[in-house]
């Protein structure tokens, strides 16, 4: 698991947003999991940090692909990504997700984040 945080901005939510995620692939093998509930803590155009009570078995050599569903500014998103880090604090698990999305999805995400940012200012 690699962890790089050199992005231009990271949008942090005052109140975490509810999200739903599924694991699609673990170490090259396709898997089907039930929906997991989590909270979206912050987001950028390249990734996000989430928090959940679910422990996903990963280590430095793991390659876990996830699909994440959430809503921003009344727009629904389904974004694929790879878990790049994991931290545990008490009974909660925090994960860093690196997106594997198209530039069109990133543009739509940026537009929605700008609208939300203007409302919060």
Describe this structure in words.
The protein has one helix and seven strands; from the N terminus they run βββββββα. The radius of gyration is 14 Å and the shape is globular. β1 and β2 form a beta hairpin. The protein has one domain (12-120): predicted glycosyltransferase like domains (Thrombin, subunit H, Beta Barrel). The chain has one helix at 103-120, and strands at residues 11-26, 29-30, 36-43, 47-52, 64-72, 75-89, 92-99. With 121 residues, it is mainly beta. The protein is 15% helix and 53% strand.
Low-confidence stretches: none
Please identify which CATH superfamily we are dealing with. Answer: predicted glycosyltransferase like domains
**Strand order of the main beta sheet, please?**
1-3-4-7-6-5
**What name does the CATH topology carry?**
Thrombin, subunit H
Terminal residue distance: 35 Å
SSE order: EEEEEEEH
The value of Rg in angstroms is 14 Å
* Number of structurally distinct domains: 1
Q: What general outline do the C-alpha atoms trace?
A: globular
CATH class: Mainly Beta
How many strand segments? Answer: 7
Secondary-structure arrangement, i.e. CATH architecture: Beta Barrel
Fraction in beta strands = over 45%
Report the average pLDDT across residues.
90
